[in-house]
Amino acid sequence: MIAEEYYEFLTENKAFVLGEMMNELDQKVVFMEHPIYGDEHEVIVAFPDHELAFDSGFMDCHDMSNPDSKEYRPFFVDSTFMLGFEIWL
């Protein structure tokens, strides 16, 4: 599903918000649960300021939201969903 359509699907279906954070680029990141598949589906990362959403590849938010490590923090850079290790290394 295209990132814009995915975000719209999540908001229209009132996807459960697992948490949110601001990353080092001052982007608001929202972690969501899939409205149909719930915790059977990987955590969804949404960037509300851009109205985009992506599957994260992670089954929980811990590594992505860990304040002690930015290795797995989600970012939206150059029109792409990226993790910290793809940017900082």
Secondary structure elements and pairings:
Blueprint: H1 3-12, E1 17-22, E2 28-32, E3 44-47, E4 52-55, H2 62-65, E5 74-77, E6 80-83, H3 84-88
Antiparallel strand pairs: 1-2, 2-3, 3-4, 5-6
Can you put this structure into words, describing what you see?
The chain has 89 residues and is α+β, with helices and mostly antiparallel strands. It is built from three helices and six strands, in the order αββββαββα. The chain has one domain. Helix content is 21%, strand content 30%. The protein starts with a helix and ends with a helix.
Physical arrangement of strands within the biggest beta sheet: 1-2-3-4
Order of helices and strands: HEEEEHEEH
Largest sheet: 4 strands, antiparallel
Oligomer: single chain
Report the end-to-end length measured between terminal Cα atoms. 29 Å
Task: Give keywords.
single chain; 89 residues; alpha+beta; 4-stranded antiparallel β-sheet; two-stranded antiparallel sheet; 3 helices; 6 strands; globular
How do you describe this structure in short?
The protein has 89 residues and is of the alpha+beta class. It has helices at residues 3-12, 62-65, 84-88; strands at 17-22, 28-32, 44-47, 52-55, 74-77, 80-83.
